[in-house]
Design a protein that fits this description.
Elements lengths: L4 E5 L5 E4 L5 E6 L3 H6 L1 H4 L1 H15 L2 H22 L16 H20 L6 H6 L4 E7 L1 H6 L11 E10 L4 E8 L9 H15 L4 E7 L3 H9 L3 E10 L2 E12 L5 H6 L3
Parallel strand pairs: 6-7
Antiparallel strand pairs: 1-2, 2-3, 3-4, 4-5, 5-6, 7-9, 8-9
Helix pairs in contact: 3-5
Protein name: N-acetyltransferase domain-containing protein
Keywords: Transferase
InterPro entries: Acyl_CoA_acyltransferase, GNAT_dom, NAT_camello-type
Length: about 270
């Protein structure tokens, strides 16, 4: 499968590309707060997906399942001894402890979401955060023809259909961080994530940054493959533990933008 390419990326932050399915992709910076705020859900997709994975991993861990099973068994035994039940159908209340894992998953999801709303600086003011210089956010859009072809109804709402985002956080005069790379599930597999990452890297290089870094969890193998194919090198691993369990691993990647060939970065990986 051929990698998607960015054949045209201009100094003003705009560009265009062709996806793996042959659809034209328009790339441009999101300059206004309302425009950036409209792509908030897409930009935060990896974050919300990771929270759900962490909650699922904890709630379905062997210790939690063992406690739920043991509680159900003990409840059933106590009911049989105390009430002298004559039918197993009367033991349905003993199954209530089996609801512990899904209930715990929901509580963990809410707790993680609540904590990270205070940790993430852009969670509450996404548009204002990413349109405030020197931070930048870019959007990938299907042009009107591709947008109309991708939807059953031909409405004006399909013009400039947002299919991906990537943001560049200013760290210092020489370094920035790639964040908020998100592509909706229905548009994955077309190389849009690779396209918009290349675009963000090229624009950051043009703006004078010599290094770019990013953080990604080990639960995102597809994203990791894209970053490594673009030349990002693993610099650090940080295990994340909850309730004594290894939940995921946070990885720090970095790339030297100054050493990249802008022609190859814009045109492909050959």
């Amino acid at each position: 499968q051929q990698p998607a390419a960015v054949p045209a990326s201009l100094p003003d932050g705009t560009g265009s590309a062709i996806s793996r399915k042959g659809r034209q992709v328009q790339l441009r910076p999101l300059l206004t707060e309302p425009e950036a705020e409209a792509c908030r859900d897409i930009g935060l997709l990896p974050f919300t997906w990771t929270i759900d994975r962490v909650a699922h991993r904890i709630s379905s861990s062997p210790p939690v399942l063992a406690v739920a099973g043991l509680a159900a068994a003990v409840t059933a035994w106590l009911m049989i001894r105390r009430y002298q039940l004559s039918s197993w159908r009367q033991l349905w209340p003993a199954a209530c402890p089996l609801l512990l894992p899904p209930a715990l998953r929901g509580l963990l999801w809410l707790d993680c979401s609540r904590k990270h709303t205070w940790v993430l600086p852009d969670y509450r003011q996404f548009g204002r955060y990413w349109t405030a210089p020197p931070n930048r956010i870019y959007g990938a859009f299907f042009n009107s023809a591709a947008a109309l072809a991708s939807r059953s109804a031909n409405t004006e709402d399909n013009f400039n259909l947002l299919v991906g985002t990537a943001a560049c956080l200013h760290l210092d005069d020489s370094a920035c961080e790639l964040q908020r790379v998100g592509v909706p599930a229905e548009f994955r597999g077309e190389g849009i994530g690779e396209i918009i990452c290349r675009h963000a890297m090229l624009q950051s290089r043009r703006l004078g940054y010599s290094r770019m870094q990013l953080h990604v969890s080990s639960d995102q193998p597809r994203a990791i493959r894209i970053y490594e194919s673009l030349g990002f090198k693993l610099k650090e691993r940080k295990p994340i533990r909850e309730l004594g369990l290894l939940i995921t691993e946070q990885r720090l990647y970095e790339i030297d933008l100054a050493c990249l060939d802008p022609v190859k970065l814009a045109g492909g990986l050959d």
